[in-house]
Amino acid sequence: MFIFAVVETKAPYRVRAFQYDQDSSHIANEQRLQLLTDLAECIKTGDFSEDAEKEIVSISLPNWEKQQWLQNN
Predict the structure, then answer these.
(1) Dihedrals phi, psi of 55, to nearest 5 degrees
(2) Fewest Cβ atoms closer than 10 Å to its Cβ: which of 32, 48, 56, 69?
(3) What does the pLDDT look like over 14-48, one tens digit per residue?
């Protein structure tokens, strides 16, 4: 079980506690185990690369910045 403790950064500094429901907790545990398995394999082989490293991904400026540039040029 994992509990999230949340505290406000300004007065009156109220505090709340949250925890995953049973289904979410199960999913998180399965993901954690898979990540640990993946890490063990990386350590064993010495290969920490990921398939995504072989791809070139197109990115774009935010629409607001494009519009601002178009208006000024």
Answers:
(1) -105, 150
(2) 56
(3) 999 999 999 999 999 999 999 999 999 999 999 99
